[in-house]
Design a protein that fits this description.
12 helices; Rossmann fold; alpha/beta
């Protein structure tokens, strides 16, 4: 790993045992994460985006070892998290914390806010009494809450306030890395922007490295330096946030962008919508070639036979798409404008 990489997932694989029926008959393994490699760089945010069921939340849990990998490795500052045991794992976990999607279900309803935030402070840092209480108050102020709210229970707070408590709790162990798993999707739109801006502020204040998991590419772009796009357990595109959002090289990324509501409906991107038909295939029976082949409007013969390799893209990053390698080729260009129209025409003839 290079010096600027804090956390890396190397060739991650996660299989779950599929079971069905009253007697839970085994239906074989389901591959939720299929040979995923990604890096979190110090002080930067990597956005991980994809539809529900794409495997992005599973990747976040693998990186924190909330679940064990089926294959591959997770390296935290060159230490293998997947091989760590007991005390060493506890120490590593203090450097990595998660903010979950639903702040109501992730907070203990029987504990007061001060105790919720204070628990990791005591557990990971050994602070007790006044020292712990002072740290709780500092974190409450840092996330925009009043000190008096330490005495409240979670159900006495609004959704946005509860998520601020969850963020404060995550900061209690003084982590280097924060994994935000759909951290704003359960909140009202007006509150979402407040929490996103808070995360950006905290990243600057505490020097955090973040993985931001979401299904909403517009939200991911707002907080991310780089974006990785997942489909059916695989990374299909990766690159700088602006390049991925403005010049998508993969049809799936273009489709995700098409689904984002536009402030100006007459904008150019609206007229170039990529409409996906059907549902994603089952992870238990993935396509032979490209994972996106059954829904791609540009699919041609190699897509059905061969899994595409990651190739460089103009503007930075990589894409796993046969359009960028052989046959009808974009030569690293984005799926937009004249290139978009010509490729759509070429693949239909």
């Amino acid at each position: 790993m290079s010096d600027d990489v804090v956390l890396a997932g190397i060739d991650l694989v996660k299989d779950f045992s599929g079971r069905t029926g009253l007697i839970k008959r085994s239906t074989g393994n389901v591959r939720a994460v299929d040979h995923v490699t990604l890096e979190l760089k110090r002080g930067r945010t990597l956005g991980l985006v994809g539809e529900s069921g794409s495997g992005k939340s599973t990747v976040g849990r693998l990186l924190l070892r909330l679940i064990d990998v089926s294959d591959g490795a997770v390296l935290l500052n060159d230490q293998d998290v997947t091989q760590s045991k007991h005390r060493s794992l506890r120490k590593l976990r203090s450097a990595m914390q998660m903010v979950f999607q639903d702040p109501y279900s992730s907070l203990n309803p029987t504990m007061r806010v001060g105790d919720i935030i204070g628990e990791p402070i005591s557990y990971h840092r050994g602070l007790r009494g006044t020292a712990r209480d002072n740290e709780v108050e500092r974190l409450l102020v840092s996330v925009g809450l009043a000190v008096e709210q330490a005495r409240r229970f979670p159900d006495e707070l609004s959704g946005g306030q509860r998520q601020r408590v969850a963020i404060a709790r995550a900061l209690g162990s003084e982590p280097d890395i924060l994994v935000c798993d759909e951290a704003v999707s359960a909140l009202d739109i007006s509150i979402q922007s407040q929490i996103l801006n808070l995360l950006l502020h905290l990243q600057s204040e505490f020097g955090l490295t973040m993985l931001f998991v979401s299904h909403d590419l517009s939200v991911v772009r707002h907080v991310s330096h780089d974006i990785a796009v997942m489909y059916l357990g695989q990374i299909v595109e990766y690159g700088p946030a602006d390049r991925v959002a403005d010049q998508p090289a993969h049809p799936y990324t273009a489709a995700l962008l098409s689904a984002v509501p536009q402030a100006k409906p007459s904008s150019r991107r609206t007229s170039e919508k990529v409409i996906l038909e059907g549902d994603p295939p089952s992870p238990s029976a993935p396509p032979k070639g490209c994972p996106f082949v059954s829904r791609c409007p540009f699919a041609f013969e190699p897509c059905h036979e061969f899994r595409p390799a990651h190739t460089p893209v103009n503007g930075g990053g990589t894409v796993a798409c046969h359009l960028q390698t052989s046959g009808p080729t974009l030569g690293g260009a984005s799926l937009g404008g004249a290139a978009f129209d010509s490729e759509k025409s070429a693949t239909k003839h």
